[in-house]
Amino acid sequence: MKEYDVVIIGAGLSGICAAYHIKNQCPDKSFLILEGRASMGGTWDLFKYPGIRSDSDMYTLGFSFNPWKSPKAIADGNDILSYIKETADTFDLNKHIRYNHKVVRADWKDENRCWELELKQHADVPDTMIRAKFFFSCTGYYNYAQGHSPEFPGSGKFQGKIIHPQFWDSSLDYSNKKVIVIGSGATAVTLVPEMAKKAEKVTMLQRSPGYIMNLPSEDKLANFLKKILPAKTAHNAIRRKNIFISLMLYKACRRWPKTMANFFKKQIKKELGEHYDEKHFSPKYKPWDQRVCLIPDNDLFDALKDGGADIVTDTIKSFTEKGILLDSGQELEADIIVTATGLKIQLLGGINSYVNGKKVDTGQIKAYKGVLFSNIPNTGIAVGYTNATWTLKCDLNCQFIAGLINYMDKNGYEVCTPKFDENEFEVEPLLDFDAGYIKRAVDVLPKQGSKSPWKVHQNYYKDIKSLKGADYSDKYLEYV
């Protein structure tokens, strides 16, 4: 059975980030990237819906070690996918990737001091096994095979097409069609203005409004700095600037929620003018209880002003043959209904994981610094922030794992197992976040402790100190 020092699961943004840091910081270690799909890119290869783009700036969503070169700070999905592939080429990572290799089971056995991974390939290829001294999950946090699709009464009656954005049919022609997009999150605010360019009318049907903020798709200061400074220097300066601004915005929202809620509404009202309707832009929750939606260059507002799109705030009574009947009694007609109703959380890529024969219950484990798990040996995870850009936290987690592997090697250790002390720490939910996809996943998400190092900080500056400056001799890390 072939054995590797590190096996990385997933060849998306976080998987490529992990591979770079393992190769760069642990040059003597063998590593492999296992990708269950046929191609690289993760989310950015999976999603094909119209207008797919980043919901944060590329100077922070991009890699710290590979400057973002495009003038567009808010990037299209294809550009992000190209950037991921270019990064893999630049740092010679492609030879370490195995596509169509899906891990279906992972077994840790103390006697072997390694993971045994069961791999499924094509239907006509028998399952194979490999060993990994360290298991690094970079699979993201949601189920690629299933989105969140609530049961809508009467959906079988609808005579048109119903489609979920996660499983978009690229051959779907929505030209001159009436479209309803159910949802108010990042996917919905992306779809609506893009589909409005071709459709007869696009209606964003929301149960309740969300917070929306407009930003220019190009960062003028960033583009200026890239002209006068070396690429790496400019990238780092812009990255630091954007990290600081986003963190200050988040802190302002949490400290002065009423003031910031009024700020968001005032900006929208200024843009929409006579087209502004209070009920469509007055969320019931505080800013950053859920993620603030970013739109580039006022695209959603422009679609609302020119009549290509509208917003309806109401609840669904049932689907009908012609569209959707609302609880208010209004019926919306449609040829196509898009259910932008969210994601389904899945941890560790849905892999059935066992430690010495006992199945891992992800809802019971505790997260150590948001990167390791209690009582699970030699396992790391790369996940991002809920209140900032995904890659920022992934990058720190990857550097922490590489440093941990080097620490173990230097001190002659083969196994690292975090140990949570329930007499010392209270157990809390992992995320203080009110988004529907998080609330639906309470039973599968790990827990956190009441204080460090078991407290998961949604704060990049705290995590720099905690993860880049980590003390691997921490008493909560047990080594063998």
In short:
The protein is of the alpha/beta class and 480 residues long. It has 2 domains: 2-144 and 344-479, FAD/NAD(P)-binding domain; 149-341, FAD/NAD(P)-binding domain. The protein has 12 helices and 27 strands.
How would you characterize this protein structure?
The chain is an alpha/beta fold and 480 residues long. The protein folds into two domains: 2-144 and 344-479, FAD/NAD(P)-binding domain; 149-341, 3-Layer(bba) Sandwich (FAD/NAD(P)-binding domain), CATH 3.50.50. It contains twelve helices and 27 strands. The strands form eight sheets. Strands 1, 2, 3, 4, 5, 6, 19, 20 and 23 form a nine-stranded mixed β-sheet that branches. Strands 8-17-9-10-13 form a five-stranded parallel β-sheet. It has a three-stranded antiparallel β-sheet with strand order 14-15-16, with no helix packed on it. A hairpin with a 3-residue loop joins strand 14 (316-319) and strand 15 (323-326). The protein is globular. The model has no long low-confidence stretch (mean pLDDT 93).
Q: Any idea of the CATH class of the largest domain? A: Alpha Beta
Q: Nearest-angstrom radius of gyration?
A: 23 Å
- The structural domain count equals 2
Strand content: 15-25%
CATH architecture of the largest domain, please?
3-Layer(bba) Sandwich
Number of strands: 27
